[in-house]
């Protein structure tokens, strides 16, 4: 079989027009030395931290919302600030928004100055926190922040969850039923199949479909998510599961009978995979609801993925 080079992931509708082209992080200890951050980085790449604050790119409300949506589709969580009220002399205007993604992307403003720095610190904490919660905070510009204008800003701070990246290897009947369902319940779905007709772009609603090799296409999918294997060939299933374990996907599952699952684990053991790795393979994948048809199996798999997402 001739290997095909996987096409690049399609840009988001907002990506080329409203999302900032270059984003930066400025270490607090040296604000004069910005460090470039790749705007296409995933959750596994560069990230904001307590020791650095992002430099937001300018953007109106539409650009801020577009950047937040684009980050969520990439599986990158973030946090957004919205000015709710302004009292007295203050730089912010009700309705202004500022978004920070965990990978360092930032766009928008809440007025600038010391109040924006304080808001950025809060957004970084939300974007990187494990148990982020919505909050409404009042920032007192004079007594708290030393700003001579002395007014107050009331700001809504809200975490923005990223979609969970998921790679579906094989675009057969189960995948065709499963991918749109996963997309509707909060997963960013890429479906890959080596067969041109099955992997044709646009064939599966709500998912990115690619005709290509799973190990090439899978490089674009963050391994913090799930790899679901359901090809037309048992040997190909085996290779895909082995690759997913080596790549370190947080969730690895495969469609198949209990007998196939046992043979898969035996082959993994023979190839030197540890007991812990073998135990990570969910096969047969799906909640035990007596599913038989592709649509029923898709429901059972989606249920299991939702449960896994809640627990991770």
Secondary structure: elements and pairs:
Layout (H helix, E strand, L loop, with lengths): L22 E5 L7 E3 L14 E4 L5 H13 L4 E10 L9 E5 L4 E3 L4 H16 L6 E6 L11 E9 L3 E6 L3 H12 L2 E7 L14 E4 L2 H4 L8 E4 L4 H14 L3 E4 L3 H13 L4 H6 E2 L11 H18 L1
Parallel strand pairs: 9-10, 9-12, 10-11, 12-13, 13-14
Antiparallel strand pairs: 1-2, 1-3, 4-5, 4-8, 5-6, 7-8
Protein described:
With 312 residues, the protein is α/β, with parallel strands linked by helices. The protein folds into 2 domains: 23-160, no CATH class; 164-311, Rossmann fold (3-Layer(aba) Sandwich). Helices cover 31% and strands 23% of the residues. It has 8 helices and 14 strands. It has a 6-stranded parallel β-sheet with strand order 11-10-9-12-13-14, with helices on both faces. A 5-stranded antiparallel β-sheet has the order 6-5-4-8-7, with helices on both faces. The protein is elongated, with a radius of gyration of 22 Å. It starts with 22 loop residues before the first strand and ends with a helix. Residues 1-46 have low confidence and may be disordered.
